Each structure stands twice: as C-alpha cells, then as structure tokens.
UniProtKB/TrEMBL annotation:
Name of the molecule in the record: DUF6533 domain-containing protein
Keywords from the named record: Membrane, Transmembrane, Transmembrane helix
Keyword Transmembrane helix: yes
Pfam families (alphabetical): DUF6533 (PF20151)
UniProt cross-references to InterPro entries, sorted A to Z: DUF6533
Source domain of life: Eukaryota
Coiled coil region boundaries: none
Source organism of the structure: Candolleomyces aberdarensis
Length: 335
C-alpha cells in the first residue's frame, strides 16, 4: 500500500470515528440518554400541557408551542434518516443533510419567536418595542438563513472505497456555520439586555412572583443558550473539516425547544396559581397594588381570563378584607 493510500485510509477512519461521536450526541435513538431525556421531558410536562394549553383559544404562542412540541419528533426522525443508514451515494447523503439543516433553522426560529413574544409582553405591549423586535427578528434570522444556505452549499460528500459507511461530510466551511451561531448568540444577548432595561425602567417598583418568573426564566434561557451557542462557535472554528463541527448542533436545537416550551408552561402555571390565590383570599380587582398580573387565556370555573394583563395596583386592607384599585391596565392576548 502506497503512502497516499495509507493517508486516505487514515482519513476515512478518522472521519468515521468523528461521525460516530456526532451521531451519539445528535441522532435521537442512537443515544439512550438523549432519548430518555426527551421522553421524560414530554411525560413530565404533558399533564400541564393538557391543563393549561389545550383549553386556550387559538393564539400565536399556542401555535408555536404545539408546532415545536410535536415537530421536534419529526426533526429527530430526519436526524435518524441522515445518521443511521449506510451505503448511500454522495447525492443521497447531501439531500438528507440539507433536509436536516433546513429543519434545524426552522426549529430555532420558532423557538426564538416565543422568546421575542415574551419580551413584547414584558414591555407591556409597547409599540416601539414591538417594532424594534420585529426588525431585529427579521434581520438576524434572515441573515442566519442566508449564512446557513451558503454553508450547506460548501458541504461536500464523496464516494469512499469502503462500502456500507454512514454519511460523512468530506469538507465543510465551518466559518459559515459559526456565523449562524454568532448571530443567534447576538440575538439572545440583545433581547436579554432589552429585558433588563425594561425591568429596571418600567417594573422596578413592582413586587410580583409572576414578574420574577418572567425575569428569572429569561436569564436562565439566556445563560443556557449563550453557553451552547458559544461552544458551537468555538467547535466550528477550531475543529478540523468533517463531522466534528456538528458535535453540539442538535443539542442546542433540543435545548431551544425544551426551554421555550417549558417557559410558556411555567408562566401559565404561575398565572393560574396567582388567580386561585386571589380567589381564595377574596382579592377583588378594584384597587392598586404594585404588581404585574398575568393570566392564562382560557375559561376556568366559569370565569374568562385575559391573555396577559399588566396592572399597577395599590393594596388597601380594612379589617382583614383586602381590596385593590386599578391605576393603569394593559391587556394582551399573546400568551
């Protein structure tokens, strides 16, 4: 065997080993841990989904919630169809790779749409904030889609002399894919700073458990996705050509879906809990209390609930009876 043949064989072995590692992390069903995590998350949140999401009227967040919740299963089927079959031609491998690439960006865009809607709700339906968020959302995600398209055009598959191998990209332009994650990281950072600004400028005098949930979940979302996006940027810039550049991609896709859908359920759960506490304590919405009220958008106990309600109220207590008086209200049927 010549030196050139030995080098080619070593390259194939390295590529196969790299692809195996990526499949262990990225292909549902190939990793028992990831499969069990998805099943556990679904089963854990399904009763809450039935209680808080199914009875609600149709809305944009509800459509996004169910689209993400169940399309992610289809997405992982596409991942399996790319990562597990062997003996495919380069054209077949490329088609499957492009399919999962487009599917991945669609999942991320839908997940971030929920994040942007939350920020709009957090602002009290401020029209200027809405216009800016729409412009940022379109600019960043359109740019990310363009970069992803150019990246997919650089991915090359070749026919290897060894039969029955899984699909292995022979060459890619990791800088393009790194640019996609850089844009997603920038989007999350900007949105987080907007939430911080709104919290200190508009809601710093509020004392509400629901406001705390809005803020705390947003920060947790920011930290998790920032860490993963940064890791993907480093991997894409530092890793050699081949499948290793995709090591953490599907992990970030999964986390986008889990965090965005859980945040919606968490908010609606706390809203319903506050509503029940108000009913128990006979709190009437006639006065003022420095708080933010958020209600789910379905009828419970015969009482229609609004989508999102921001209220400044003042607590007035007279001999054990608590009454409240509104000083300003904004309603939104977003979430």
């Amino acid at each position: 065997m010549s030196a050139a043949q030995k080098a080619a064989l070593q390259a194939i072995i390295r590529g196969y080993r790299t692809t195996k590692y990526v499949n262990y992390l990225g292909v549902a069903g190939h990793s028992a841990v990831r499969c069990l995590t998805k099943v556990a998350d679904f089963l854990h949140t399904f009763p809450t989904e039935v209680q808080l999401m199914w009875p609600t009227p149709l809305s944009v967040p509800k459509v996004l919630f169910f689209a993400l919740r169940y399309y992610i299963l289809i997405h992982h089927i596409l991942a399996v169809l790319y990562g597990l079959p062997t003996g495919r031609s380069p054209e077949q491998c490329r088609t499957a790779f492009v399919r999962i690439g487009i599917s991945s960006i669609l999942v991320v865009v839908a997940s971030e749409a929920i994040l942007f809607i939350r920020v709009y709700a957090f602002s009290g339906r401020n029209r200027k904030v809405l216009i800016y968020l729409i412009l940022q959302f379109l600019a960043i995600h359109a740019s990310a889609f363009v970069l992803l398209t150019k990246f997919l055009q650089t991915v090359k598959f070749v026919k290897f002399p060894i039969p029955n191998l899984v699909c292995m990209p022979a060459s890619t332009n990791g800088h393009m894919l790194g640019g996609v994650f850089a844009l997603l990281l920038a989007s999350v950072i900007i949105v987080m700073f907007i939430m911080i600004y709104i919290a200190f400028r508009k809601h710093r005098d509020f004392n509400s458990a629901l406001l705390t949930i809005f803020y705390r979940d947003g920060i947790f979302y920011f930290i998790c996705l920032s860490v993963l996006a940064s890791a993907n940027i480093v991997v894409n810039l530092a890793a050699p050509d081949g499948g290793l550049k995709f090591l953490l991609v599907q992990t970030e896709i999964d986390l986008h879906v889990i965090l965005s859908t859980r945040m919606l359920l968490h908010l609606r759960g706390w809203a319903e809990r506050e509503r029940k506490n108000n009913d128990t304590n006979n709190v009437k919405e006639t006065g003022t209390m420095g708080a933010m009220e958020y209600s789910t958008n379905y009828r419970a106990h015969g009482r229609p609930l609004s989508g999102i309600k921001f209220q400044k109220r003042e607590l007035i207590s007279t001999r054990g009876q608590v009454t409240t008086t509104k000083t300003g209200t904004e309603d939104s049927e977003l979430v």
